Amino acid sequence: MATPRYDAIVLGAGAAGLMCAAVAGQRGRRVLLLDHADAVGKKILISGGGRCNFTNIHTGPDRYISANPHFAKSALARYTPADFIALVDAYGIAWHEKTLGQLFCDGSAKQIVAMLCEEAAKAGVDLRCGQAVGPVDHGDDGFRVGFGDQMFTAPSLVIATGGPSIPKMGATGLAYDLARQFGLKVVEPRPALVPLTLGGDDVLFRELSGVATPVEARAGNAAFREAALFTHRGLSGPAILQVSSYWRHGEPVAIDFLPDAASGWLAEAKRARPRTSLAAALAAALPDRLAQVLAERLALPGELGALTDRKLADAEARLARWTFHPNGTEGFAKAEVTVGGISTANLSSQTMMAKSVPGLYAVGEAVDVTGWLGGYNFQWAWASGHAAGQAL
Ligand code: FDA
């Protein structure tokens, strides 16, 4: 039996693969879209608490982490949040801005998956799910891809199998295996947008499990002002997830517990209420349990009136730069995304095609481009999928 032949085979029917296949199909290409999962777009379905934070209106290259910060510019400029919003609007999907430019469906993430599936179906994409992919090789007749007990060929192959975060959702390292097979470099993948774990002295903070407060969190040169959440294993919440993408083992994470407090506020509090304790003064601005633990650790018992302004200034400085020493992260099992991936040095930023392997493309999270929390990762998946879809 002859091996069925397509113009392009796209591996992975997630956010980037669905977009890429639909765009190429709309341009008249015969596209085969393959996924080992029994259903498509599983991460889209669970994203944004089931409402899919599908883009961010503040999208720009500065919201992405990559060994080459310029790489994402071209694709992001050619397929913008406005383009995706236009598609969502064309399907009558209601949406709202939650906060910080993050756009969510009013209804359900299922609407986004249904929309992408319809776009692909309208474009004649041949979508097949639920079989193992492999082996993959390259010969005179182009790329040959095994799927279950069948074999398919095409002159173009798109790697859209994402990163290894959340294996429970069907994530695998196939993208990196294929990249290495074809001689592309892989920037060391690390879990990102992931809770941090605390040990040693910091372990005392675990008793605050469930307490959340707005902070400014810092790791390396990155700083984010959002909520931090104490957990039974360490630290989470948007501010921590954001800095986790920049954090490296062995480095501290600094937290400003009162980023809006004016300098000298504790001395002011002493003059206004000299009989009050440090814990009570802190509790005016922070959750009670957190105020209690911080006051204990600052070890300034008694009334504020009995403390020197110097001691209060030192306490203020510590509260503004409280240093945690995370002993790890909760790993790929809990990471929303992966930093690192297929090196951008090996890819064209215009088309996502491998410079050394004509016809081989990589898109989405598989590539070493990782967005901040807040819809940026889907926007990269749409934009990079679109760029490749236009080039196939
Ligand atoms: P994606 O992971 O979407 O798709 C990869 C596809 O490849 C999957 O269908 C998978 O089954 C398939 N595949 C994997 N290995 C395979 C193999 N060996 N053989 C065959 N097929 C294989 N982002 C955002 O912008 N807003 C948000 O609200 C959220 N929320 C969110 C919540 C949670 C819990 C997670 C885990 C992640 C998010 N994200 C997010 C991140 C976002 O989901 C992610 O960046 C995109 O889905 C990446 O799109 P891709 O298409 O690259 O990979």
CATH level 1 class label of the largest domain? Alpha Beta
Mean pLDDT: 97
Sheet with the most strands: spatial strand order: 18-17-14-15-16-13-19
CATH architecture designation of the largest domain: 3-Layer(bba) Sandwich
- Tally of contiguous helical segments: 12
Contiguous low-pLDDT stretches (5 residues minimum) are none
Query: Which term fits the overall shape?
Result: elongated
The hetero molecules present are: dihydroflavine-adenine dinucleotide
Output the CATH topology of the largest domain: FAD/NAD(P)-binding domain
Question: Which percent bin holds the helix content?
Answer: 25-40%
Question: Main attributes?
Answer:
seven-stranded antiparallel sheet, FAD/NAD(P)-binding domain, 392 residues, five-stranded parallel sheet, elongated, Elongation Factor Tu (Ef-tu), domain 3, 2 domains, alpha+beta, 25% strand, binds dihydroflavine-adenine dinucleotide, 12 helices
Please describe what this structure looks like:
- The protein has 392 residues and is of the alpha+beta class.
- It has two domains: 8-191 and 333-391, FAD/NAD(P)-binding domain; 196-329, Beta Barrel (Elongation Factor Tu (Ef-tu), domain 3), CATH 2.40.30.10.
- Helices cover 29% and strands 25% of the residues.
- The chain has twelve helices and 22 strands.
- A seven-stranded antiparallel sheet has the order 18-17-14-15-16-13-19. Strands 7-2-1-11-21 form a five-stranded parallel sheet, sandwiched between helices.
- Helix 1 (15-26) packs parallel to helix 5.
- The longest helix has 16 residues, at 376-391.
- The radius of gyration is 24 Å and the shape is elongated.
- It starts with 7 loop residues before the first strand and ends with a helix.
- The model has no long low-confidence stretch (mean pLDDT 97).
- Residues 11-17, 35-37, 40, 42-43, 46-48, 52-53, 133, 160-162, 165-166, 170-172, 174, 336-337, 364-366, 375-378, 381 line the site of dihydroflavine-adenine dinucleotide (FDA).
- Residues 11-17, 35-37, 40, 42-43, 46-48, 52-53, 133, 160-162, 165-166, 170-172, 174, 336-337, 364-366, 375-378, 381 line the site of dihydroflavine-adenine dinucleotide.
